[in-house]
Amino acid sequence: MEAVAYASFTSFATKSLPFSSLSQSSIINLHQNCHKNTLKSRSPRKLVICASSGSSSGSVVTLLDYGAGNVRSLRNAIRYLGFEIEDVRTPEDILNADRLIFPGVGAFASAMDVLTKTGMAEALCTYIKNDRPFLGICLGLQLLFESSEENGPVNGLGLIPGVVGRFNSSNGYRVPHIGWNALQVAKDSEILDDVGDHHVYFVHSYRAMPSDDNKEWVSSTCNYGDDFVASIRRGNVHAVQFHPEKSGDVGLSVLRRFLNPKSQGTKKSTQGKASKLAKRVIACLDVRANDKGDLVVTKGDQYDVREHTKENEVRNLGKPVELAGQYYKDGADEVSFLNITGFRDFPLGDLLMLQVLRHTSENVFVPLTVGGGIRDFTDANGRYYSSLEVASEYFRSGADKISIGSDAVYAAEEYIKTKVKTGKSSLEQISKVYGNQAVVVSIDPRRVYVKVPNDVQFKTIRVTKPGPNGEEYAWYQCTVNGGREGRPIGAYELAKVVEELGAGEILLNCIDCDGQGKGFDIDLIKLISDAVSIPVIASSGAGAVEHFSEVFMKTNASAALAAGIFHRKEVPIQSVKEQLLKEGIEVRI
């Protein structure tokens, strides 16, 4: 994954406090002070591993939480399955664990630096050498290998032969690898017995490759340009590149089999159709306070969220936590919250959206994105919060990704003007600390028709449908402040710049299509999805199941998002997926 700060390891070396007690400045300081491990040629450690004997009895699992990204979701999944959690505070806690889970997103070098300095690396190796029940997740798998090319080369724990390298984006595959992909199980993996032909959720830019030297470890692979290691298993030692806590019921089954393998019966035969990376269907919830101060899900008509009645009240389509839970049951691949109120006068800890995230993540085990108001601000008490602090609180409360809108536009304009990456924008700071896979840039453009392409300095296209005066060309002007203010930058130019500044994904809206139900703006989505190498989410305009198949067949969009048609139950999520399957488009079922 991309760069991230692993702050909680500093607590092992200082006060033995869990990560939640650390300040945001500790996270940033650790990230800035991390030193790269110098790579030295060496053979992987020899392991003597006996046959699996299953995990010990009891309902407690030990968690090695180094504070990177959203570990709340994993905690919730473990508790959902009926297990209690003990946090690692010292290396001895690792050695004394009955079951150990080592989750992670972020930078290989930073993790190894703190693991080594705190004595955790040696404890981990000893624990694994003794064939103790272990589950590594994402970076928790990668660190088991000899080294990584990420900001390196950098030494790993050296337990498995192989080098972790970056995906190759030159062959047309988008990096990061984000979404639901299929596994090819290579051998009896035990914890994957219930996965079958179903999709699991990946989000990463780096991967380990299978080889003759590590084939005894590899239990499954996944294809994304090339086959990479999706999971390893040897004795009681397991690790997965995907996120089981974000892979729905299938992912929960992986965790359940690790936590309590003796409770499982014979291997279940599961049915599915997973063969490759699926197109994602995302449910979006625009959340704001109504005139009574209650948080409600609403939906705009070209960004206007008030009813056209005498009362002019905020359109109320339901409660956010309940709707998110329903969409998870209905098969949404992700749930996205857009906070369109802002809550600028609230101290950060009291933000109502944080409560929404915390409650939602207790029962929704697919990725959660939150956007709106992620910028520097000062509350009514005079307390200043940086955008990084705001984002960090969202991550700790259950968000997997944050979405940045207006702030990204301002950062892009400044970069175009100066050609200098200051590292001070919210986009750059959050991407640097939490990784580009955790940062979505939301683009809100409006179509501007022109008679000839060279009428403006921005990228123009020949539109499928001529403008009101017969214009054959248009450019897409970016807006800020909820679409109320146009800016001197086009969607094409913004997309190219934010990718360079650290965005891992683009949420592409269209003010002209919003709430119209006439379909996505295919011209716009094709323009942007062809221009960048990161995933693009199509948004605005869906009104029928055919609109989803159209956008996937005519553009390179990785996902499609809708709101109103789901809230009003006009088009069920399951109907969308059935339509996509009919058209031969891969989806998660």
Automatic annotation (TrEMBL):
**Annotated signal peptide:** none
The UniProt record lists the keyword Glycoprotein = no
- Compartments where found: Plastid, Chloroplast
E.C. number(s) listed in UniProt? 3.5.1.2
Domain Glutamine amidotransferase, first and last residues per copy: 63-257
Reaction catalysed by this enzyme: 5-[(5-phospho-1-deoxy-D-ribulos-1-ylimino)methylamino]-1-(5-phospho-beta-D-ribosyl)imidazole-4-carboxamide + L-glutamine = D-erythro-1-(imidazol-4-yl)glycerol 3-phosphate + 5-amino-1-(5-phospho-beta-D-ribosyl)imidazole-4-carboxamide + L-glutamate + H(+); L-glutamine + H2O = L-glutamate + NH4(+)
Alphabetical list of Pfam families matching this protein: GATase, His_biosynth
Q: Does the keyword Transmembrane apply?
A: no
Give the superkingdom in one word. Eukaryota
Q: Which Gene3D superfamilies match?
A: 3.40.50.880, Aldolase class I (3.20.20.70)
Q: Which InterPro entries match?
A: Aldolase_TIM, Class_I_gatase-like, GATASE, His_biosynth, HisF, IGPS_HisA/HisF, IGPS_HisHF, Imidazole-glycPsynth_HisH
Keywords of the record: Amino-acid biosynthesis, Chloroplast, Glutamine amidotransferase, Histidine biosynthesis, Hydrolase, Lyase, Multifunctional enzyme, Plastid
Q: Copy the pathway line from the protein's UniProt record.
A: Amino-acid biosynthesis; L-histidine biosynthesis; L-histidine from 5-phospho-alpha-D-ribose 1-diphosphate: step 5/9
PANTHER family reported for this sequence:
IMIDAZOLE GLYCEROL PHOSPHATE SYNTHASE HISHF (PTHR21235:SF2), IMIDAZOLE GLYCEROL PHOSPHATE SYNTHASE SUBUNIT HISF/H IGP SYNTHASE SUBUNIT HISF/H (PTHR21235)
Function noted in UniProt: IGPS catalyzes the conversion of PRFAR and glutamine to IGP, AICAR and glutamate. The glutaminase domain produces the ammonia necessary for the cyclase domain to produce IGP and AICAR from PRFAR. The ammonia is channeled to the active site of the cyclase domain.
The family this protein is said to belong to:
Belongs to the HisA/HisF family.
Put simply, this protein is called: Imidazole glycerol phosphate synthase hisHF
Q: Which species is the source of this protein? A: Hibiscus sabdariffa (roselle)
